[in-house]
Structure prediction request, 264 residues.
Amino acid sequence: MASYDIIGNIAIIKGDGKNKKQKLEQAKKLLKIPSVKTVLEKAGKVKGRLRTIKPKYIAGEKNFIVNYKENACRFKFDIRTCYFSPRLSNDRKQVALKIKKKDNVLVMFSGVGVYPIVISKYKKPARIVSIELGRDCNKYAIENARLNQMQDNIEFIQGDVKKKIKKGGLIVKGNLVPLQFDFIMMARPNLKDSFLEQALIASKKGTRIFYHLFCRDKDLKEEVEKLVSEAKELGRKIQVKKKVFAGEIAPYKHRYRIEIKVLN
Prediction:
C-alpha cells in the first residue's frame, strides 16, 4: 500500500509507481475508515513559497475542503491552497506548553492558524500575533479562530514577514507598531532563506525562538552553527538550548525544532 496521510475527512495517498487500478483499490480500503469521506492523490512535489500541492481526486466525495480536529481544536481549509502537516500535532502541543501566560508571542508562517490557536488553547498568553503570506491560508486562519471561539485572542496579519517585520516593530494596517516579543515560533517552510534576521528584529534580550530547520542528520551540527554565525553577522548573539526531532520529510532528512535564546 502506498504511503498516505489522513487529515480529518480527507485521505491523501502518494501514488508514485501505482497504476490507476491499484490507487482505486487503496482508496476503497481507506474509505472504510469512518472519518474518511474523500481520497485524493498527491500529484508532484510541494512547490513554491506557499508549499502547496496539486491533489487529484480518486474516490469518495469530490471535495477539497478539510475538516480536521487536533489538540481539542477544530480546523477548516482548502487542501489545494493551504499547506498543512498533521504530523506536527505533537510539536504544536509541545511548543504551546513551553509558553508562559505573560508572554507576547509571534507566530511566523502561521498557515491556517494551527500553532497560534493551539497555543491559545493551552496557555492563553498575553498576546499572540500571527503572520502568514498566503491570502487563502490567512482567511481560513481567521475562520478557524472563530470556530474555536478565539477571534479575540489572536491578531492575524496577512503578508510577507520581510515586509511586515521592520526595525522598530510590525507593519499593521500600514502603520509601524512598536513591538518586540518574548517568544517567536518560526514554523518555517522548507526554503533556503532562514528568515532569522526578521525574527531577531522582533526579538529582545531573553526572547526564545523556536525555529524549524530541515537537513540531513549528518548536517545538523553544521546547519545549527550557520544560524549562530548568521546571528553574529547581524550583531546579535544567540544560544542554541535544544535540538528536537520534529519529523521526517525524506529518507535521512528530517525537520528539527531548534530552540534558541537571544542573549543580546
